[in-house]
Predict the 3D structure of the following.
Amino acid sequence: MTRPLKAQPDSLCRTSGRDRTGVMVIAALTCLLIVSTIVVGMLGSAIRVRRQLHTQRDLRQTELLLAAGVERAASRIAHDSAFVGDVWELPHESIVGRGTGRVTTKVTRSSSGSHWQVSVVAEYPLDRGFPIRRSQSFDIPFSEKPNKESNQ
């Protein structure tokens, strides 16, 4: 024999308030997770851009120090033929930036004896573990001017 079908009670057909609340909590947590992921990605991108800008600023400062060192070496050689080079230390207060810099100049006579061989190395910022280093070498022909030290 077959049993007659009973009508289901209303409580089984309707979703309870507790079930709706659970679905809403899951939906809210999912949205929060998505928004958090986007924000973390944006913050990471902003940090990378900031580091890149600082590196570019430090690179440009190193290039400016190198150019100043080249000009300084040429001027020193023009005024003193006995100049053999030096180390120019620049404190962070004298540089637009956050670190100290150093420009090292070496001057030697060429093997042919017709010109000076000049090597300039700029390093910035020295305060950090790995400073940026740029160098330039060039020749300056001997001038016909007498040496200041030989006249004295």
Summary: Strands lie at 85-90, 101-109, 115-124, 132-141. Residues 145-152 have pLDDT under 50 and may be disordered.
